[in-house]
Amino acid sequence: MNTSVRMYLCDGKIKIYEVPSAPHAEVAGAIIGFMSIWNMQDFRYGTDATTTLGRGSGREPDVYVRPRHRPRPQQGAPAADRYGNAFPTMMIEVGFSQSLPDLHRTAIRYLGQQTTIQIVLAIKIFGIRTNALTNTSTIALIAALYLRTSPTPLVPTRVISFGTANPDTNTVNYITQQMNVPPGSFVGVGRPDPNNNNNNFPPCNAANIPTYTMNIPGTELFDGVPANNLPAGFPIVPNTLPVGFAAGFNLDLYELQVVVREALNI
């Protein structure tokens, strides 16, 4: 059997990190589809393009999002590739065989000083849990959003558990103790809600539940775009909520859960 793998270059060394699979590919494809419906005219959506992250380092993101009007870097400034393209403003990584720690390390590399990437979204798909007594299967899912504009850009601003199973203790400990995510920024399935007497958040079992909506901010998505090329909603009026495309894209994580469950037949 010929099994292909995903690899990347880090400090001159080749590292293997993912075995392509239907859940991995279909989640990445779904995100492109959802974002394209939201805004196709202002962005280029792509996959697997080798992106330079520094000397001796490169990566092929599962998905990248680049504003069409983001200027190319000036000569001598770091560029995304050998063609001189501007860096995407957003990178998306989906991990199935890839571990959560590797996803976290990848996000940190994307937000390094040699790039102008503004947003990283990491989606982790854990293994299937089967209850032999009830003959039912569940799965834990995690989404983590990183923003360069955050005071702590290497710590996710939001982590959402959105599967049909709670994240296990090792995962919770890694997120809170190694990724240093504050408890209030880690929400969703299996997590206590401080605004509801620390009872657990409701299940992720329908679309349009606010807890399971991940907002991708418009300001960061359109970073670097000249004012005359910005869409409706810009400039943002001070002391008001952004509107239009400036309000960003709301990713409904329940829709991704459905994609995963269908791909895994659970």
UniProtKB/TrEMBL annotation:
Matching entries from Pfam families are given as: Uma2
- What segment(s) does the record annotate as region Disordered? 51-80
| Domain of life (superkingdom) | Eukaryota
**Classification via InterPro entries:** Restrct_endonuc-II-like, Uma2
Which GO biological process entries does UniProt record here?
double-strand break repair
Residue ranges of every copy of the Putative restriction endonuclease domain listed in the record:
2-113
In Swiss-Prot or TrEMBL terms, this protein is called: Putative restriction endonuclease domain-containing protein
What is the originating organism of this protein? Rhizophagus irregularis (strain DAOM 181602 / DAOM 197198 / MUCL 43194)
